[in-house]
Write a sequence for this structure.
């Protein structure tokens, strides 16, 4: 079997990443606690989200040490979700505008659930 | 740099894009990892799409809602006698899940060192964190349903779609955590019993279990950022 030794790495690297994940989580909580709004808010949320996700997949799930074939097969397909997200943003904008046109702004009209 | 991978016959495989071509054109197994690990990755890929679809539909529904979306920071605030602290329960849940990810990573490491006892206890600690997480989620759901009257079709705070997306996304994630706890306890007890010693001391299963558990944590990273913080 290839790589009979498996994924063996020094413990210190896990400790470092563990610590970093705590720090990033604390920072992302602070974004809410300190009540950042607008561009600052969502850019910081996304930054910490992708940093955390990257470290979990790369180090904890050992993807950084896998062969490129596996990396491409696992990390490639989720990129297709970007297309779905883009399409749904357009769709949601259209739905929202349609609702404004037919029901008006705010809760002045009765809402049918 | 990854150490040079070897085939069954001891040939050295090329790295990089040449390696990709070699792996896919070798007329034999493509991935130089145990089949169980490759299959877990494929399963996690499919799960990525499920959660990806959930989160995308949440985005669509939130963007197109005419009524104001309830502010998660206030909805999930908790008061310990004094002023309510925004989002505190969710923050604690996040830290618990990250702690569990750390103990899991250590369990995988100890497994490869063939330290059975340490592996067992670290996996059990991971499962215990998982149980804590699910318990807090039960508390959160109860509070929302009983005290605040949030339903999948309506809620007193704002846009009606809030309830359905919340229950769907966190519910499906909670289900994953619960399944993960059962999975962890099963494998941990086998490690303890020496089940894998009889199979040549192969502890790759601990890493495969770890992949699932880290994925659950990974999904929470996205839910925390996109649902609770946004």
């Amino acid at each position: 079997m290839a790589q009979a030794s498996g994924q063996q790495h020094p413990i210190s690297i896990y400790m470092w990443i563990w610590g970093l994940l705590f720090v990033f989580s604390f920072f992302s909580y602070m974004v809410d606690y300190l009540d950042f709004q607008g561009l600052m808010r969502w850019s910081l949320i996304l930054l910490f989200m992708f940093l955390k996700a990257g470290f979990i997949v790369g180090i904890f799930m050992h993807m950084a040490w896998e062969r490129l074939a596996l990396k491409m097969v696992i990390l490639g397909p989720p990129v297709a979700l970007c297309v779905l997200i883009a399409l749904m943003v357009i769709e949601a904008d259209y739905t929202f505008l349609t609702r404004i046109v037919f029901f008006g702004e705010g809760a002045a009209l009765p809402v049918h659930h | 740099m990854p150490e040079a991978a070897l085939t069954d016959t001891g040939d050295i495989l090329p790295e990089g894009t040449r390696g990709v071509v070699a792996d896919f054109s070798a007329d034999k197994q493509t991935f130089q990892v145990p089949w169980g690990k490759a299959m877990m990755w494929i399963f996690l890929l499919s799960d990525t799409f499920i959660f990806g679809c959930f989160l995308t539909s949440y985005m669509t529904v939130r963007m197109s809602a005419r009524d104001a979306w309830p502010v998660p920071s206030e909805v999930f605030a908790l008061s310990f006698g004094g002023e309510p602290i925004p989002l505190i329960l969710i923050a604690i849940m996040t830290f618990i899940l990250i702690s569990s990810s750390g103990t899991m990573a250590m369990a995988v490491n100890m497994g490869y060192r063939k330290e059975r006892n340490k592996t067992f206890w670290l996996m059990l600690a991971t499962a215990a964190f998982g149980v804590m997480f699910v318990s807090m989620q039960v508390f959160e759901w109860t509070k929302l349903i009983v005290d605040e009257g949030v339903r999948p079709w309506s809620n007193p705070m704002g846009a009606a779609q809030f309830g359905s997306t919340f229950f769907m996304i966190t519910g499906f994630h909670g289900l994953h955590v619960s399944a993960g706890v059962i999975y962890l306890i099963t494998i941990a007890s086998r490690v303890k019993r020496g089940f894998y010693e009889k199979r040549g001391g192969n502890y790759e299963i601990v890493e495969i279990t770890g992949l699932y558990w880290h994925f659950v944590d990974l999904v929470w990273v996205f839910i925390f950022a996109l649902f609770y913080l946004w």
Notes: Residues 1-32 of chain B form one domain.
